[in-house]
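Structural biology now treats backbone shape like a language. To illustrate, our science desk offers a sequence and the tokens encoding its fold:
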Amino acid sequence: MAKPTYLTPCPRCGTKAFEHLSSHSHCVECLYFEDRYYDHDSALINALKAEKYLIQLSAKNSRKENLLLKEKNISVPGPVEGLDESQPIPINPEQEAS
């Protein structure tokens, strides 16, 4: 069974002759046409733009958070100075003696 169509005012001419179908919409009076084609390439580009924006926003918030911590004299976690990462850290004191 086909989906029912409905008429709305046309964005171009304003008459109530803009027919909406499942694949496209068109105006019977002025022949204005809108396609409902889903473009995968532009969807991918939009997703990549959104991802880039979220990464930039995250980095900006991280920098702002670090500045606030420095203003409050709270140390920002980072690498431990003087720690030789090539040597294993002993789990219990008995391992240090041997």
In short: The chain has a mean pLDDT of 76. Residues 13 and 31 are 10 Å apart (CA to CA). The chain is about 40% helix and 15% strand.
